[in-house]
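Course assignment 3, question 2. Fill in each field.
Student: A.L.
Task: Predict the tertiary structure for the chain below.
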Amino acid sequence: MDFVKLTIVEIKGILKSKFILILGILMLLFGIAMPVIGAISGEPTHASSLLSGGFAREGMMYGGGYEEEPITVGGITIEPDNPFYWNIRQYEDEQEYIDSSQFQHPEAYSLVMELGEMERNYYLKFAAQITTHEDYRYQLAWYGSVKLYDKYIYEHNDVDADTLKEALNWRRGYDESTFDTTYINITEQQKQQKIDEAQAFIEKIYQVVDSNDFAQYIDLSIEQQTTQIEDNEKQIDGFEATIADLESQKAEAEKAYNDMVSQNADTDALAQQTKKIENLQAQIDGIQEQINSIQMWTDTLKEVTIPMLEYRLENNIIPGDGSWQDSAIQSKESNMSQLKYTTILTEEKFNEDQYFKERYRTYSNYKAATQKQIDKFNTGIYVADQSIAAGKPDMAFVPDGARNQTASFLYYSMFVALLGVILGGWLVASEFQFGTIRLLIIRPKTRIKILMSKFTAGLAICLGLYIAGVLLNMIMNGIMFGFSDYANPNFSIAGQTAFIVYFLPKFLACIIPILFGYCVAFMLSTVIKNIAVSISVPIVCFIGCFIAMTLFVNFSYMSSSMPNWIAYTPLPYVQVSSFFVENSSVEMLIGFGVPISLGYGIGLLCGISVICTLISVWVFKKRDITN
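Answer field:
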């Protein structure tokens, strides 16, 4: 009880400092203000946006930072934030700078202008109905534009081929290898059939745009994906035929080589024949890689894209409608697609790939990192499935919900850690610098009890500010973004858990840097007896850790020498909250194979904190008080 009373007296003494009191109040107000600012601005604040400066603006992304004026075409006014503003604006601008003299074939000029007007009128149809990028009908524009150009080329396939190709190069480009067989060398009947098919597809798109018919949108999307699958399979057949021809040439070359050997041909002739065989094999391998890539794409369309479209239709989950179900489907589709393209190479293939060797150094590092990615994708798919099946959103699918806002506020622990450095560095050193240490020592208390009461008082204030700030933030997030979000479960491979069960371990882990910073500064305050040094040194080290982590990430991208030793230092663990943020420097280094472990980091920081505290006690107990 005596120690508790002494600690309470120290707490009251600390709070008499106006600087500490005002700083603590401001930090609590910060926890309250962030949800309010996010709700008012319509852009809830996340740690990532805060730490990156949050200066990006939509106007800068789409308008190069300049304010654009609305344009009016055919009685339709298109605002600068319209998804098709720049498609239409491009044609208007082109009329000012395109000149017929710029074309090798003069007739190409009129074709380019025709194509531009055709494209402008096409996008005007969309712009009149679709005003946001989130509108699911927005995706149809690309599908239709492909057919629009197909139709135009078929209708003008009697134009000089070089003139037509020059015009297309100005507008969209073309595939030289298939252009003639696809568009030129066809019968009139085939040509008319292609024109009719393209026109029918475009009219279907216009119907969806006008009627907002979601079911027809799904039918069109599946039709487009099915057509793409057929095109891919035809391309694969063509590549396989080419490989068969190359294999035949290679067999003949190998036979010729064996004949040359039996006839004792000279070394130069044998070398040339060997090179020919190697070139043929390289061509075969290159084409096989293309086949594998196209086959992967085809499998993704068959097994991911089309089933997800069908699922959306069955459950009426509209793309871009802002619902958590849409977010869940997007997440599942993304994870399934990435899983398709993520495979673990054999050790032989790994050793042949210079990029992987430089990034991961060892096959075991590569294999572990890739398996971690695969596990992450599988977990994402599972979470989406379980969330949709339960009819309750995981917090990943409500990015602007109260749970996400509360979890992202864990970076607040770093501000409290800096306050802890200020407080820890000031507590004992101020007694020496202001000459009040003698008055402190003459109390009828042991030195250890006096020192630890100060230590406990300062730490209690730091932890109190951290707990109170997070609780206030949690309450304000509930008020601003809905308390009901807290009632939804979090999903994982282990099953459903309440948000508090998910959040509490992370909340407790973020206390460790506060403890660490406070203990280091308290030790310096006791040993050095100088306020400025005791505070500035830990703060510089904290900031240095953030800078060092960024530098190490950049170093890892550029160098084959991975800095694994940093995993055994406090550097990655000073900002524990970064372990709970995607695409943080810690996550990137782990992806590079650096053996960073949160459990080890917590143990390391706690161990250093205990050592610093013991040093503080030993020095204070043994020191002669001379001032």
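Instructor remarks: The beta strands are 71-73, 76-78, 490-492, 495-497. Residues 2-44+400-622 form one domain.
Grade: pending
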